[in-house]
C-alpha cells in the first residue's frame, strides 16, 4: 500500500513529469534527510540492489569514489535551496561494477513551502561514457604519434607486402609490393580473398587456427607459403593485426608480410644436406664394411642350400637368404649416398631404362592389381640421357614401388614421358592414398616412412641420384586422390 501511495504522489506530478519518467528512466525518491523512500524497477536493475535492500539507505551507498566530496555537497546545496540539479554521476552497483547516469534531481515542496522530498530521474549513459573515454584516449595517442605513424606507414609500404581485408577476409586494399610479389594486378585482387594465393602447402587446421586467433581480436604471426599468379611459390612472414570496433569485434584486418622465400629455400637445403652429409659419412664407413662379410655369408648360404636335401632346412636357408638380401639392399642404398662423385655417366635411351624397370617389377605389379600405362610420343622414343643406368633404374624402381604401395587396392599408375628443348620429363601419377601437404616436405628425409616395413630411404636416394644427374624431382599430392612425382632430367642434345 505504501508503495502505491508513493506512486500516486508521483502520478500527481503531472503528465509532463510522467512522460519524462518513462520505463527507460531510473527513478528514485528520497526524504529531506536524503533517505531513499522509493525506487522503480529500473533502479533496482541498474544498481543490482533489491528494493528492500536500498529503501531507507542513503545515496552514498552507491558512491563510486569517482567524484569529490565537494561535488556532492554542492549538489545538495543547490537542491536544498529548491533548485533543480542536473549532472552526470558515476555510481557503484552492488556487485562492484560501475555505471554512469545522467541525473536530474527535483525538490518538491509541501503546502507550507517546505521541501518534503527529492525526486531523482536518471538515464544510463555508461556506454556513451566509455566510448567517449576510449575515443579521447585514442585521439590523444594518435595526435601525439601521428608523425611517427606516418613514418611507420611509409616504411611499411616501402619494405613490406601490405593488404587490408574486411571482416570476412575480402581484400579491400593492397600496396604495390603485394602486386609485385603475387604477380596479380590490383584490380584482380580487390574483392577476392586470400584463397587466391593458396599454395596447398598448409593444412586446413593451419588456417582454422589463424582465423580463430584473429577472429578473437588477437594478432597472428607465422610463415605462409603462397602461390603467385604464374604458379611460382613464395614464402612470407606474416603479421595479421585485427582492427576492433566499439564492441571489441574485428571489423577489418591488416596483413603485413615480408618475403622470406630465399631464407626458406636455404633453410630447407641446409637441413636436407646436413642430414645427408651425416648419413653419407656414416654410410661410407658402415655400408662397405657390411657388404663384404655379407657377400661371404650369401655365397656360403647358397652353397649349403644347393646341397641340402632336407626340405624344412631348405626353407630356413631361403628365409635367411631373403633377409641377407634385405640387408644388402639397405647397405646398397647407403652406398649410393656415400660416393656421389663416383657416378660414371654414359649415354642411354631413357625409354629402355623405364621399360626394363617395369618388366622387372611386372610380377609384383600384377600381384597388387595395379595397371601401368606407359605413355610417350613415338618421336621421343630415342631420347638420350647421360646417366649411370643402374642408379636411374634405382630411382624409377623406388618411385614405382612407392606408387604401388600407395594403392593397396590396386589402381592405375600412369607413367608419362615428355620431352622439351633441354630436358626429358617423367611423370609418375598414381591413384593412391596421397600425402598430406605438411608431410610432403619430409619426403627425402632419411628414415621418414609411414610403412610398417619401410626404410624411409627410397625418396632420399631418389633426390640424391637425380641431383647428381643435374635434374630435379617435384611432388604434388592430394589426399585420397593420388600423387604425381615429376622427374626432370637434362637430355642429351646433338
Ligand atoms: P618407404 O617407401 O620405405 O617408406 P620412401 O622414402 O620411399 O620410404 O617414402 C617415404 C614415405 O613417403 C612413404 O612411407 C610414404 O608415406 C610416402 N610416399 C612416397 N611416395 C608416395 C606415393 N606415391 N603416394 C603416397 N605416399 C608416398
Ligand atoms: Mg619407398
In total, the number of strands is 17
The radius of gyration is 41 Å
- Overall geometry comes to elongated
Strand order of the largest sheet: 2-1-5-4-3
Q: What is the overall number of helices?
A: 15
Helix and strand composition category: alpha+beta
CATH architecture descriptor name of the largest domain = 2-Layer Sandwich
**CATH homologous superfamily designation of the largest domain:** Histidine kinase-like ATPase, C-terminal domain
Q: Which runs of at least 5 residues are low in confidence (pLDDT < 50)?
A: 1-22
Output the CATH topology of the largest domain: Heat Shock Protein 90
Please give the CATH class of the largest domain: Alpha Beta
Strand percentage, roughly?
25-35%
The biggest beta sheet reads: 5 strands, antiparallel
Small ligands present: adenosine-5'-diphosphate, magnesium ion
Mean pLDDT: 84
Distance between the termini: 114 Å
What share of the residues lie within helices?
40-55%
Total count of domains: 5
Notable characteristics:
Beta-Lactamase, 15 helices, 494 residues, disordered N terminus, 45% helix, alpha+beta, five-stranded antiparallel beta sheet, binds adenosine-5'-diphosphate
Task: Provide a quick synopsis of the model.
By secondary structure, this protein is an alpha+beta fold. The chain has helices at 2-12, 15-20, 41-47, 51-54, 69-80, 126-159, 176-182, 186-189, 204-215, 261-307, 311-338, 350-367, 389-405, 437-440, 458-468, and strands at residues 26-30, 36-39, 85-92, 98-109, 115-124, 161-166, 171-174, 220-227, 233-244, 250-259, 346-349, 370-376, 384-387, 411-419, 423-429, 472-478, 482-490. The strands form 4 sheets. Strands 2-1-5-4-3 form a 5-stranded antiparallel sheet. Strands 7-6-10-9-8 form a 5-stranded antiparallel sheet, with helices on both faces.
